[in-house]
Amino acid sequence: MEAAPLLGDSSSGGDYAPARNFEQFKHVVWSETVKTWTISGPVIFQIVCQYGTNSVTNIFVGQLGELELSGVSIAISVIATFAFGFMFGMGSATETLCGQAFGAGQIHMLGVYMQRSWVIMFVCALIITPVYVFATPILKLLGQQDDVAELAGNFSLLILPQLFSFVLAFPTQKFLQAQSKVWALAWIGFGALLAHVFMLWLFIFEFGWSTTGAGLALNISGWGLSIAQVIYVMGWCRDAWQGFSWLAFKDLWGFVKLSFSSAIMFCLEIWYMSSIIVLAGHLPNAVISVDSLSICMNLNGWENIIFIGINVAMSVRVSNELGKARPRAAKYSVYVTIAESLILGLLFMVLIFFVKDHFAVIFTSSVAVQKYVAKLAYLLGITMVLNSVQPVISGVAIGAGWQALVAYINLGCYYIFGLPLGIVLGYVAKFGVKGLWSGMIAGIAMQTILLLLVLYKTNWNKEVGETKCFTFSFLFFGCCREGRKVGAVLMANC
């Protein structure tokens, strides 16, 4: 008789046994569901609060007028999203290394990895700064209307301090997520959101500072969030945080390579959907097109929050389980979570179809924009289904260190296939926004199919062996005397 599956937790020290009957299968599904949502639940709440700062900003600014909404939406969805995607991706190397090191019991290295990421990301923020400074000519070069580009450029320059808050925020979040200390992030994010809403009301409506007030609120809430996370790390994570260390400046090149692969993977994903906003600016009646798409992308972003939370849970689960040499636990976790995410995506699609004539009222009082949003709702629903699976697989890629492979897949599916197809449908075939979006959906569909194929072909036992070499090579190359000894043994076995 087949043994019941082991739970695979830290106390048991064992992997799952093969699930060969319904009871064992049900046990695995329930166990993985609990583990995934224990991590993803608080992360989703934290990201809701973090994403809510941009969404609430658009809602407040939308009451000022269509031009203000277009300008601020462009600044946030193009300029700030460009920076957010790159910085978030650069910080994801910390997620891979911290997760695998935590699973392997090398907890003292988490603080070193986080500090190393701070150093690298500060340099990246300096490199990205000109994008904010020259946002107006960049947006005009991309074809945006002069009045929209000028307003967006001024707003981008105003929120430049927010860019440097990412330097502290993202590595600190990955440091805490790798240890499943996610409730602290959730409560800090909630406090920042409440403060942000209050500042928006105070600065825009009470002080009459218009879009300037919105920019100041973004800067203050961003830095408040970052500083609060650092205080928590230094005060309540004494095992993983052992003070500042010169080790943060060692092996920077190896860390940069992994960080850059992560950044390219995320940027290709985030910029892909952001580019549709820019392309819509070239269509007739650009203001209504941009406003309608911004509302759809905003709502799609809210749905993505759930799957980004699952993305984080997948990264933590896969990296921890591979670090603990539990291949079957990693495999079962991936399959169960993908199936549950797909079901959620289908539910969101049905919900969008039911409320397609009404949800735009939350964002704008323009009847023309509301009607145009209703016409795009079907494409929004399809996008939600596809985006329910893709973030989960990206989380697997981060946990297993596959960032470079996924970056190549994203490049081909998004920018060689999907984007050109969208341009042809939108401009040549004259389907407008619907054509642009349909082509880009085709790119997402192709990417999802290829990533599922990669998962199907994955040898999880082999991944465990590669993870050992990958994790301890960072210890081997100059981290500490003890780390070099452990790393030398493991590298020899690899």
Overall mean pLDDT: 85
Secondary-structure class: mainly alpha
Distance between the termini: 35 Å
Q: Radius of gyration, Cα only, in angstroms?
A: 23 Å
By DSSP (H or I, 4+ residues per run), the number of helices equals 16
Helix content: over 70%
For the sheet with most strands, the description reads: none
Which word captures the global form?
globular
The strand count comes to 0
User: Could you name the ranges where pLDDT drops below 50 across 5 or more consecutive residues?
Assistant: 1-5, 7-12, 476-494
Order of helices and strands: HHHHHHHHHHHHHHHH
Give the percentage of residues in beta strands: under 5%
How many discrete domains? 1
Q: How would you portray this structure in words?
A:
The chain has 494 residues and is an all-alpha fold. It has one domain (25-488). It has 16 helices and no strands.
Key traits:
494 residues, 0% strand, disordered C terminus, mainly alpha, disordered N terminus
Topology at a glance:
Layout: H1 22-62, H2 66-103, H3 109-133, H4 135-141, H5 146-158, H6 160-178, H7 182-206, H8 210-236, H9 252-280, H10 286-323, H11 327-354, H12 367-400, H13 403-428, H14 432-457, H15 460-476, H16 481-493
Helix pairs in contact: 1-2, 1-7, 1-8, 1-10, 1-11, 2-3, 2-5, 2-6, 2-9, 2-10, 3-6, 4-5, 6-8, 7-8, 9-10, 9-13, 9-14, 10-11, 10-12, 11-12, 11-15, 12-14, 13-14, 15-16
